[in-house]
């Protein structure tokens, strides 16, 4: 890092010398612009050291684990061995048995690395499309942070987030919003996007649905008449008034599906426009890495323009590098220092209130970077990144299936 900074500074000095000797005004102006860009790069070298790196791994079926630590078994191109898979399943069975014995609730905050990991859980409820849940922690038994709703053909992703999502009892053991916090019918949910959609516990269950023990327990309680029924409310009107709501709602939209910028998504947070789009500044260096050349992404924030004719200024806040490993989606890097400076200059209200009581100076800069991880913007960045990862993967799978189907039909037509 120090050697790179020294080389960049020497390059700046050489360009400044050239700009002083025998240069036309236009050429000197171009050199000064280049010098300014190089100087900005040098200033950002220190900030690059303060960044968060997350490794996105597949977890069982459709779940994702966003971990700050590396899993060597899932880093391999072919994934974990049979022995490692068997050991992981055994560990999960032991942990599940311990949770059942201690009756650990869904939204507990106990986690070994709750501040450095996320877990994206995809609940399955037959004939329904419940939202995915992003947990702050390494399992679905940690604190829920974001509810992620998808739409047809990946056009719009709706994110409901805020401290209210972690309300005790909001999520039942199935991983969906309980009926107690249902915000109303479809019209009421459409009129107020902060309201949550609850799901009743049915008397039947299809194979593969989440919350098997919970559903069987509710069914047994209904048959015997002993125990509370989560779907029976004493006062439904009063319950609807006290039902939890999302503190904020963010929409991630696919900007131009039929254009050259097909990997461009947009969301707006506190009046600032953010874009996830394709990038060529990162690459997968391993074998067959060129297969994922067009899968890498970056997050940029567009600064407010002083005039309509002025140029748009973009600030890069994060990057995502796709992986060729079977059990790994990719690596997400969030530039915490750049985000801290960006928030302090543009959306200071987005910082957590606990930061305002801290002292100034160098410690204050470090505190800002630490406080970034506790902000809603950091959760939105991780959530939108997962939307991009899932959406792009599903698009590629759909296209591959369509090509295989067209090829099969063509072969049958040809005799």
How would you describe this protein?
There is one protein chain. With 415 residues, this protein is an alpha+beta fold. It has a domain at 104-248. Helix content is 37%, strand content 19%. The chain has 10 helices and 12 strands. It has helices at residues 2-20, 25-48, 72-75, 82-102, 186-191, 212-224, 236-242, 336-346, 362-372, 376-413; strands at 52-59, 63-67, 118-121, 132-136, 143-150, 156-161, 248-254, 265-269, 272-278, 297-302, 314-322, 328-334. Strands 1-2-3-4-5-6-7-8-9-10-11-12 form a 12-stranded antiparallel barrel. A hairpin with a 2-residue loop joins strand 8 and strand 9 (272-278).
Summarize the structure in short.
Residues 86-114 are annotated as: Disordered. By secondary structure, the chain is an alpha+beta fold. The protein has a domain at 104-248.
Rounded mean pLDDT score: 77
Helices and strands, in N-to-C order?
HHEEHHEEEEHHHEEEEEEHHH
Low-confidence stretches: 1-48, 103-113, 353-361
Largest sheet: 12 strands, antiparallel, barrel
Counted beta strands:
12
Major sheet strand order: 1-2-3-4-5-6-7-8-9-10-11-12
Percent of sequence in beta strands: 15-25%
Radius of gyration: 25 Å
- Structural class, by secondary structure, is alpha+beta
Question: In angstroms, what separates the terminal alpha carbons?
Answer: 63 Å
With helices defined by DSSP (H or I, 4 residues minimum), what is the helix count? Answer: 10
General form: globular
- Helical percent range? 25-40%
